Each structure stands twice: as C-alpha cells, then as structure tokens.
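Reopening this one. Same input as before:
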Amino acid sequence: MSKAKHILILSIAFLMLSANGVAQNNVPTDSTVLIINSGFEPFLTDAFKIKDNPSINDTGKIIPKLNYSFLDKQIPVGFDIDLIKAAKIKGEPLTKLYRGYAKVGFGTNTTPLAEVYYNTKRSKNLSLGFFGKHLSSTGIAKNDYSSFSENHLSLFGKHFSKSFTTTGKIGYTRDVNHYYGISEQAFLNPLVDLTSINNNTTEQKIDKFDVGFSLARNFTDSSEFDYNVDVDFHNLKDRFAVSENHLELAGNLSKYHKQELYSLGVEVNYNKLINPLSLDRNLVLGLNPTISTSTDKWQFKVGIGLYLNSFPDTKFHFYPKAEFKYNVVEDIIIPYVGIKGGLISNNLNSFYSENPFINTESLVTANTNQKYDIFWWY
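Same output, byte for byte:
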C-alpha cells in the first residue's frame, strides 16, 4: 500500500474521533443520544491491470518499392577436356586372313597336282579372287587309253554396300578323258577293227565356259521386303561336236507379317542340247510359295511347288512342301522332319559331272520328276 493511502486513512480516522468527542461533550440533555461504538475495518478495492497495449493508427502508411537488378556480365571460365578412349568389345579376335595359297603334289602313275588360290584381304567394300587347278594322270598301269586331265580357271568377286551384296564370277574348264573300257564283244566281233582303236579315237574333250551373277539384299528391317536373285549360264562343247547352252535363274521374295514369314520362290531352267538325237529346247518353270511361323522352341513351314515341264510334253506338276523343326537344346540339338518334291532339270553338264564316260552323242536330257522326298533327322 502506498504512503498516500496511509495518510488518507489516518486523516479520516482522526476526524471521526474528533467529531465523536465533540458530540459527547455537547450533548443536549433534552434529546435522545445514540452512541454507536464499533471497530474500524479498513478495506481496499481490488486493482485490475489494464492489459491493452498502446498502438498508433497510422492512416498514411508508406510501403517502399524495391527494385532489383542483375549485372549481366559473363565471367570467362576455362576448362580442359580429357579425351575418352572408345569402348571396345572384348571377344574372339578376327581370324587372320592370307592372300592365298599354292599347293603342289605328285602321285603314282605320273599324277601331278597343282592349285593356286589368291584373294584380297578383308575389306568393307570389295573382295576379288582367282583360282586355278590342274590334275592329270597317265591312268591305269599298262593301259595306254586311261589317261585323264582336269583344268580349271576362274575369277570371282564380291561388292558390299549398305543395302546389297553383289557377286560375280567367270570361269573356264577343260577336261580330257578316254573311253578305255572295251567290251569282250568288241574283241570277238570280226567286224570291229581293233587296230583303229588308239589314243585319239577314244579321247573325249570337254570345254566349258560359265558366268554367274547374284544380287542379295542385306536384311536390315523385317518390315520391308527381302529378296535375292541368282543367274548362271554355261556353254559346253565336246570333241564330237555336241554342244549345250544352259541358263538358270533362281529368285526369292519374302516379307514378315506379324509372326509369319511369307515367301515366294521362282525357278527358271532353260537348256538347249545339240547332238544327233536331241535338238529340242528344254524349259522348266517353277513357283514355290511357302508360309513359315516359329516360336522359341519350334518352327513350321508349309507350301506347295508348282512346276511346268516343256519336254518331252508340256505338263503341270504339283508337289508338297512341309517341314517341322523342334529346338530340344538351344541351337545344338534340333530334330526335324519334312517332305518335299520338285522337277529337277537335267543337262549334259550335270550328267558329265557324275559320269565323265557317258556317250554324249546319244544322250537325251529328260527331267527328273521327284514326286516326294521324305526326310528327317533326330
């Protein structure tokens, strides 16, 4: 309690006591006097603190505007680039290529052998080569008419581009052999003059000139058509004025549609053999449409062969074509089964390659009608 409040209370108490004393001394005798004596109980009213903080209402408030600016100045920064070596795939190294080889040999019955092969080394654009061979022998001992010789020369090359691979070749073959087998009937026949049989009368010479060309598309996109074409021609002549011109063309066109591969093969074989018995032209035309589908484990192909044969009579032929493969062990064990057929074009060159002692003057080159060929492997 403050000092002022103490003084005020004491002053009020003093006045009250003074008034009381005066009233007691001057009480009239003829009036009623009331005297009240009670104890003094001072009290103070509770004080309440003003909790409001003083504030100033400023109606003219000013908000400052701040402007920012940047210094547009390039600070030169220098840095050095370290060269990174190109990544290399580690794997099997490329097989070393040699430009060529030469082989020379000699055997019994005076049998020399010589081979020469030359080819350019690995290239991204072009490959050229040469091949030559000679093999001869005096033949069976004590038989003057069994000698033979084989000679071959060829040039070949390939050109590689981004989309195609082109191949070309040209060759010349000269084979000499003798019909040294004389039957017993010839010895016993008195009309046969054995003295006329000599090295020249039994000799057969074959001269063959051949050229070939092929074009293959490099299969880079399965959504586009893939195709290839092969063309081969040969001219063959022998010692008895027999000659043959043969042209062979083969092509294939294919395209994927979803998981299936649709393919169309085309074959053309034209052969003209000139000998005393046969002056006819032999023509074979073939179409081979097929459809193939495959998964990770198996592959199935089905189709048909349509062929036209012009010799000796014009006929149409139909052949089945089907093949099934199953991958038992990944690309290692793949058993398969299938059936196929076709019209095989025969000619003097194919017969002579199998049997050089055929009689070319009486040869008739009829085609082989292979109705079906069932094959399997497991």
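So the earlier flakiness isn't reproducible anymore. For the record, The first helix runs from residue 3 to 25.
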